[in-house]
Write a structure and sequence with these properties.
Strand order of the largest sheet: 1-2
Number of domains: 5
Radius of gyration: 25 Å
Distance between the termini: 68 Å
Number of strands: 2
Helix content: over 70%
Largest sheet: 2 strands, antiparallel
Length: 456
């Protein structure tokens, strides 16, 4: 009977059977609902249902049932949008809570859409009447802003978020606020402040017995580039806790991150162990994990082995998905790595294009770490075209910048820079190299970018 009706049926293994009206029938039914005078009542009940669903979804998306919950919420996206549209007109508090609680969904499906909804509700003056709901929305907005490379805005949002959670005496929220503040500050130049925020988040999570937040705090503590061995220690603790709470998505992402940095430190065999576990977990996480970190690690291994085609394919795959989601951070870092692939295989035209686009965007986002990595690649081009003086200046600037922001190069990246320096010394001599290097150290960030782009 269903096949002959005006209702569509969606049946998938391990999912509930869903029935949907065809669009023309849906529009007709909606018109009749409006005519009946019941629209407000029905839509308010619909909003209340999805407010409750978002409350259930938030913790569920961080536990062993997350795959089913991602699938369920994805199927409900049109209903979620309808609920948010109604909240936009009638219930700001509900809109703040729903959009804020679904942070994990936005990050996995569409960061731009999430940011639109969050901004819509946060910017309403009435949102200040609901401090806890506003804090939840600010937390989600802040993490999306980090993904968009808008670090100053993310820091401002994080500060208000933390203040509101404290005012509401929400200790778990306070821990979340410290993590966001540390995450936003992590892309500026004071690692001591970052460390303080992350340690406060860890202490709060431990005092509350929240293992998931402990794992998140340990993950972020491991991002300090000044001592990578400490990073690996923190990350091992975080991995154990994510396994314990059953957050396969975070576990898989972190396994990829650890493997990536193990490769950068030259520990290929150890990295492969984490990659093997990450691959096994992919079968559990289905499409809820994109495996960006693991793919980047695999691209580095392919690059080291001279398999440029595989390295490029992996990076392009990540960049395309990141661009679709609106994840600017992932997009730019994979773009610059594509420049390194082109440089290694001798395609200087393509390398210039990737490096130029990366440098301009990192400059726009005020990301000195990204610019330093990019201009080191440009220095490699200058060596290849017999312009060692230009390369020496860029390396001088990059060294000064990395020292300023406490960003220590990993083993593989330092080896690449050492090769550039050796080539410059061989062609220029020590005195000329030292002079050019010192000149480079005096350049500002904007001067270094302009210099690199003008000369290429």
């Amino acid at each position: 009977m269903v096949k002959k009706s005006l209702i569509r049926v969606k049946q998938e293994a391990k999912h509930e059977t869903r029935y949907q009206f065809h669009e023309i029938v849906r529009q007709y039914a909606y018109e009749k609902l409006v005519e009946s005078g019941e629209e407000e009542n029905i839509r308010t009940r619909h909003l209340k249902y999805f407010l409750g669903l978002s409350e259930q979804a938030e913790p569920a998306l961080r536990g062993p049932a997350q795959v089913e919950w991602y699938a369920r919420l994805n199927e409900e996206r049109d209903n979620i949008r309808a609920a948010l549209e109604w909240a936009d007109n009638t219930d700001v508090e509900a809109g703040l809570y729903i959009s804020g609680r679904l942070q994990d969904l936005w990050e996995n499906l569409d960061m731009r859409e999430g940011a639109r909804w969050l901004t819509e509700f946060i910017e309403k003056s009435e949102s200040n009447d609901y401090p806890h709901a506003r804090a939840k929305a600010l937390l989600a907005q802040g993490w999306l802003l980090v993904g968009f490379h808008q670090f100053a805005s993310a820091t401002s949002v994080a500060q208000e978020c933390l203040e509101l959670f404290r005012a509401c005496r929400d200790k778990l929220g306070e821990a979340d606020g410290f993590l966001l503040l540390g995450g936003a500050w992590g892309y500026q130049d004071d690692p001591a402040i970052v460390l303080e925020h992350q340690q406060q988040a860890l202490a709060l999570a431990q005092s509350l017995g929240d293992k998931w937040r402990q794992a998140r705090a340990l993950l972020h503590l491991g991002t300090d580039p000044r001592d990578r061995q400490h990073s690996f220690t923190y990350w091992e603790e975080a991995l154990a806790l994510f396994r314990e709470v059953g957050d396969w998505r975070e576990l898989t992402d972190l396994l990829g991150l650890v493997s990536f940095f193990r490769v950068l430190e030259g520990d290929i065999e150890i990295a492969q162990k984490y990659l093997d576990e990450e691959t096994r977990l992919q079968s559990l996480t289905s499409k809820t994990v994109r495996g960006e970190n693991a793919k980047t690690a695999k691209s580095l291994i392919a690059l080291m082995r001279g398999d440029y085609e595989q390295a490029r394919a992996l990076l392009l795959e990540i960049a395309i998905v990141a661009d679709k989601l609106g994840n600017r951070m992932a997009y730019l870092w994979n773009l610059v790595r594509l420049g390194y692939v082109a440089l290694r295989e001798g395609n200087l035209t393509e390398a210039r294009r990737f490096f130029a686009e990366s440098a301009k965007n990192f400059q726009e986002d005020e990301d000195p770490d990204g610019i330093a990595f990019t201009l080191e690649g440009v220095a490699g081009i200058f060596v290849a075209v017999e312009q060692p003086e230009l390369a020496a200046r860029l390396i001088g600037w990059a060294d000064a910048t990395r020292e300023k922001i406490n960003d220590t190069r990993p083993v593989l990246e330092q080896a690449d820079v050492d090769k550039i320096i050796a080539a410059c010394l061989a062609k220029m001599g020590e005195v000329a190299f030292s002079d050019a290097y010192d000149e480079g150290q005096k350049m500002t960030l904007d001067e270094a970018v302009a210099y690199a782009l003008e000369e290429t």
